[in-house]
Amino acid sequence: MSADPRAAEPGLWHEALRVADKEARIGEDAWMATSAVAILETRLARANAARIALREAVRVRDVLLAEQRVALAERDKALLDLGSTVRRSPLDHLAHLARRARRLAGRVYRSLRR
Amino acid sequence: MTPRISLLIHGGERDEATHRTIDSVLRQDCPGVEVVVAGPRPTARGGAARRLRPVGVRVEHVVVPPSDDADPTGPALEAARRAAHGSMIGVLGAGDELEPGALRAVLAMLDHQPALDVLYTDEQWPATGAEGIATKPDYLPHYLQSYPYIGRLCLVRAELLTRAGGFRGGFAGAEEWDAQLRVTELTTRVGHLPVVTVARPKGPRTDDEAATSGRRAVADRVARSGRPGTVEPTADPLGVRLWWTVAEPPLVSIIIPTVGGRRTVHGQDSVLVERCVDALLEATEYQHWEVVLVTSEATPANLVPRLRERLGDRLVHAPISGRFNFSASVNEGARRANGSQLLLLNDDTEAVEPRWLDRMVSVGSGPDVGVVGAKLLFESGTIQHVGIIVTDGGTPIHPLGSEADGTGRFATKEVDVDYLAVTGACLLTPADVFSHVGGFCTDLPLNFNDIDYCLKVGALGLGVVCTPFARLFHYESSTRGHALDPWEQDFLDRQWGLRLTTDPHVQYRSGL
Q: CATH topology for B252-477+484-506?
C-alpha cells in the first residue's frame, strides 16, 4: 500500500493506514508460521553448545580436582613420614639397635647350628 | 583429514605466550583443528607440535620475512591464512587461551548451522569485577561499523575471507576488525554463540595507533560503499562515528503532539512545547525542518498563535478531536507533514547536542535503515533511553536507563547500536516507510505503540538504530502517567511473541 499523506482526505488516510497495519500483521503471522521452528532450533543449538562447553569445563575441573586430591594425599603421606621421623626419641633408637643386635645374634646362632 | 578449523597465531618473539595458546588448543582434545603460527622464526619449543599430533591437531609454522610494516601482525596473519587448510579460520593472539570445551561447542554450533559464514563467541580478560567479561550481542551491522565488538573467537569461512582480501597490513591493532568489516559486506549469515571461549591475557588494544587503524578501516568501508561519508573519533578510543554525507538534506517534519502542559524544568516554570520549539530554533544546526503541531481539545487556545510567532511558516497546525490517543495524533501529524522524513518528538524534550538532527538524518539516510532513535536524558543528566531491549519474559525495558551518561561499556552509550525498538519520544522514520507499515497502531493509544511500530519496520528487514550522539533531555512523564495496563503487554505478546524472543541483545539476558 502506498498512501500519499499530502493527497489523502483525513478519513481515507487513516483508513489506508489501518489497512496497511492489518497487512503488516498478516505478514508477521506468516513469518511466525514459517520461522518458529527454525528460531527454536537455533535456540536449542545454542543451549546444546553451551551445555557442551559447560560439560567440558566440569570435566576439566574434575581432572584438576582429582590431581589436587592425589597431590594432597602425597603431601599428607610425606607429612606423616616426616612426623614419625621427628617424633622418634633416643630411647626408640636404642631399642631399634637392640632389636637389630638381637636379630644379628640369632642369625649367627642359627648359622652355627646348621 | 582436512581440518575444519584453522587457528592463526601471530607468534612474534613471544614464544612462551604462543606456546600457552597452543597448549590451550591441545587441551581441547578436539580433532579437525589446525594451528598455524606465523612469526619471524620457528617457535623455540618444538615439543608442543609433537604433542599435538596424537590428538589430531595439526600445527604448522610459517616463517614471515621481515617487512617494512611497523606492526607485522597484518602480514603475518595473512601469511598464516595462506598456509591454512581449514574451512573456517579464526585468529588467536599470542597468550590467548581457549576455554575448556570451546572448540567442541563451536563445532556443535557449526554442525547445526552449516550455512553460517561467520560465527563469533564471547570472551574475557583480566579486569575488575565483571569488566573483563565481554558478553556480546548477536550480529548488529551498525554497531560493527562503529565499534569492534565481535572480537575473538571469530571464525570466518576461509573461501569468503579469501574473497574479501584476507588480512591487510597497515591496520595495526585493528586487523581483525578490518577483515570482519570486509567479510560482512559479502554475507549476512553471521552467527553468535554466547559462550566464553577465549581468555585473553589482557583486553584489546585501545592505544592511539589501534584507534587510528580502526577509523581507517571504517573509512575504507565507506569508500567501498560508493557513498560519500566521513568518520570521526568518539570519546571511547575504539569507537568510530560514521557520518554519511546527505547531499540534499531532506525536509524533516517534526510531529509534536501536545496538550500544552507546564512544568518546572531546570528551575524555570515552562510550557514544555515552547521549550522544545525554542531548542529547535536556537540549539539545532539542521535547518530543513517544519513543525507539525498536533493539538487536542485540551490544548490552550493561545498556544498555537504563540508558537506561530516563533515558527512562522514552519508551523503546520494539525488539530485532532476526541479522547487523547497518541497513535492517532501521530498518524494525523503524518498526514499533514510535507517532509520525506518524519520525526516524532515528545513535547517534553529539549535538544542538547546542536548536531542532533544532522546526526539522525545522516544515520537514517541509509537504504537499510527504517527507524533512528536518540539518546534521551532525564533532567538530572542520567540516561532515560539509549535503545529498548526485551527481557526473557517478553517485557520491553530500557537496558541502560538511569545510568550515568558517558561512553558506556563497549561504547554502547556512545556509538550507533541496532535494537529491536527505540522510544517514540524522539524517532525518525521515512514518510514512505511510515505509510507502508500503517503508521502507529491506534489500538495502542498510550504505551508500546512505538515498539509496535519499530517491530513492524524491522519485519520489513529495515534496521532500527539508536544513535547516542543525538542527545536530548526528556522530562518524561510530565504529561502523562507511567502505568502500563496488562492488556498492553498481552497485545505485544500476541502480535510479536516470537519476534520478541529474537532480541539480539542476549548479553543483557540469559545468553541463550
A: Spore Coat Polysaccharide Biosynthesis Protein SpsA; Chain A (3.90.550)
Residue pair B395/B489 in contact by the 8 Å Cβ criterion: yes
pLDDT in tens, chain A (114 residues): 444 555 668 889 999 999 999 999 999 999 999 999 999 999 999 999 999 999 988 988 898 899 999 999 999 999 998 888 776 677 777 888 888 999 988 888 888 887
Give yes or no for B109 touching A (CB within 8 A): yes
Q: Nearest-CA residue of chain B relative to A28?
A: B459
Q: Which of B295, B247, B252 is nearest to B429 (CA)?
A: B252
- AA letter at B444: L
Report the chain A residue with the minimal C-alpha distance to residue B122: A50
Could you tell me if B319 lies within 8 Å of chain A, comparing CB atoms? no
Q: What does the radius of gyration of chain A's CA atoms come to, in whole angstroms?
A: 44
The terminus-to-terminus CA distance of chain B in angstroms comes to: 33
User: Which chain A residues contact residue B439 at CB under 8 A?
Assistant: 17, 20-21
Pair B194, B154: CB distance under 8 Å:
no
Interface predicted TM-score (ipTM) of this complex, two decimals: 0.86
Asked if the Cβ–Cβ distance from B105 to A36 is below 8 Å, we say: no
Q: Does B335 touch chain A (CB under 8 A)?
A: yes
Distance in angstroms (rounded) separating the CA atoms of residues B333 and B331: 5
Only one residue has cell 537455533, namely A42
C-beta of residue B412 within 8 angstroms of C-beta of residue B507:
no
Q: Is B502 on the interface with A (CB under 8 A)?
A: yes
Options 3.30.365.10, 3.90.550.10, 3.80.30.20, 1.20.1420.30; CATH for B5-233 is 3.90.550.10
- Spatial contact of B396 and B390, defined as CB atoms under 8 Å apart: yes
Q: How far is A7 from chain B (nearest CA, A)?
A: 9
Distance CA B496, CA B512 (A): 19
Q: pTM for this structure?
A: 0.89
